[in-house]
Design goal:
seven-stranded mixed β-sheet; about 550 residues; single chain; globular; binds nicotinamide-adenine-dinucleotide
Amino acid sequence: MSEATDLLSDHIQHYIGAHHVDSADGDTFDVIDPTTNAAYISCASGKAADIDAAVAAAREAFDHGPWPTMQPRERARVLYAIADEVEKVHAKLAALESFDSGLPIRQAKGQANRAAENFRFFADLIVAQRDETYKMPGRQINYVNRKPKGVAGLITPWNTPFMQESWKLAPALASGCTVVLKPAEFTPASASLWPGIFERAGVPEGVFNLVNGFGETAGDALVKHPDVNLISFTGEAATGRVIFANCAPTMKAMSMELGGKSPAVIFADADVDQALDSTLFGVFSLNGERCTASSRILVERPIYDRFVEAYAERARKIKVGPPSDPDTEIGALVHPEHYDKVMSYIEIGKEEARLVAGGSRPAGLEEGNYLEATVFADVAPTARIFQEEIFGPVVCITPFDTDEEALALANGVDYGLAAYVWTSDVTRAHLFSHAIEAGMVWVNSHNVRDLRTPFGGVKASGLGHEGGYRSLDFYSDQQAVHIRLGDVHTPALGRRATPTTTSAWAARPHDHPGRGPAGSAPRPQAAHVHIHSQRRLNHE
Ligand code: NAD
C-alpha cells in the first residue's frame, strides 16, 4: 500500500446515472500493483446488465437532458471548468497513474496538464466552429445542420490511461454526445477521478457514465449494444479487428486508434546528437508502452556503427527503478501478463539479432515487472522483433544504404502509425515523409503534437483520423438541409397524356392562388404551371 492508494476509496465502482454503484451481479476483480504484482484494490467487474444500465442513463440524458442542445458557449464553459478541475487534482492523478500503471512519477506529472488541454482545446473549437453553407443563386440555399451523434461508447487502453480517456471524452462531450466509458482493466484507478471532476464542473446527470470491467464482457456488451451510436476504440490491432466485426450488425460509426511499429529513419546528414536524444526518448519514455514509440531505428550505413555504440551506451545508463522515485526513467511494466509477453520477445530477439544493451531484469529489482532498456542491432526486416509490436522498452536498429532501401524498410511492416525522419536535406525530408506509409510523420523531432492536426494511423494502425475538427466530425452527424428559393426542375410525371390541361390541384376552387397545401412551399400560379409544363414536355 502507498500514499497513492490512500487516495482511493476501499474499492473501485462504476458510475451510472450519477450514482457510484457495484456490478449488478456483485462481481469484482483484483487490480495489481506492478512493482510487486500483489493485488492492492478490487474493482467492480461490469457485464451486460451494467452496460445496459449505463447506456439507458446516457440515452435518457441524450434524449431528454439539456446537454445535446446547449449553446456551444454554454457547453464550452463546462468544458473549461472540467479542465480546471483536472488541473486541481494533478498531484493525486500523477500519484495514482504512477502507482497503478508503473509509469515513472516524473512522466506521470505531465498527464493532468495534457488532459486539461484536451478539454480547453475542444471548448475553443466548438465556439469557433463554422459549418458549410452553399447558395445556388435564385434556386436553393443549402447548409449543414450539425447534430451530436448520440450515445458514444469509449473504450480505452492502459497506457497513460487518464490522458487517453480525455482524448475521447473531450471531443465527445464538446460535440453534445453523452458517453459510456469502459477503461482498461489493468489500470482502472485514475478513471475513478472523472465522476468527481464532472460533478464539480457541472456536467448534467447521465451525460458521463463509467463501467469498469474486462474487454470480453463489459467492452463487448458496449460494442454490441443497439442503443450506442458509435464506438471510439484505442487498443491493439487484434482487438480492433474483433470490434470492427462486432460493430457491423448494428452499423455503428467507428474510430480505431491501434498499435504501431514506427520507424525513425536517420540519414548520415542528420544532427545525430539530436537524433540520439530524441530516439532514446521516443522509445524508452513511458516505459516504452507508447503507441507512437520509434521502436525501429533505421540508420544510414556511414554512421551506423557509431550510432549503435552511442545508443547502446546511453541505454545502459537509463535508470530503471520504482515508479515513485523521481530519478526513475523506466518504471515497472503494467502487468505480469504484459511483462511475460515483452520478455518472450526478448528471448526471440536473442535468436534473431545482436543484443547490445539490456535484455534482463535489472539487479536489485527482484520482484515486479522491471526490465532494462533493451537494444537489438543488425535486426533483419524479416525478424519478428522488427515486425511485431512489443510495447515495452525494446528497440531494433537496422542499417540501410540508399533512400529506396530505407523507404522499403520503413514501409515493410503491417503497421503505419507514426514515422520520424532525420535529415538536413529539406527536399529529402519532404519527399521521404510523403512516401512513408504512416498517419503522422515528424521531421527532426519526436512526437510533439499540435492538437489541430489529424491523429491516427494507416494500415493495421487504425481506421479514421481524429484530431481537431475531425474529432468533432466523428462525434457529429452532418445533416444537409436544402431549401428551395426558386423554381426547381421537376419532371411532371403523369401529365404527359394531356399537355394542355392545367394541374388538377391548381384548378381546385378552394385553393388560395399560388399556394399549396398548408405548410408546403409557395407554388407558381396555374398559368405558369401550364407554360412550364409545356416547356418541359418539349424538352423531354
Ligand atoms: P487492448 O486491445 O488489449 O485493450 C484495449 C481496450 O479494449 C481495453 O479497455 C480492453 O478491455 C478492451 N477490449 C478488449 N477486448 C475487447 C472486446 N472484445 N470488445 C470490446 N472491448 C475490448 O489494448 P491494450 O493492451 O489495453 O493497449 C495497448 C495497445 O493499444 C497497443 O497496441 C498500443 O499501440 C495501442 N494504443 C494505440 C494508440 C493510438 O493512438 N493508436 C494509443 C495508445 C495505445
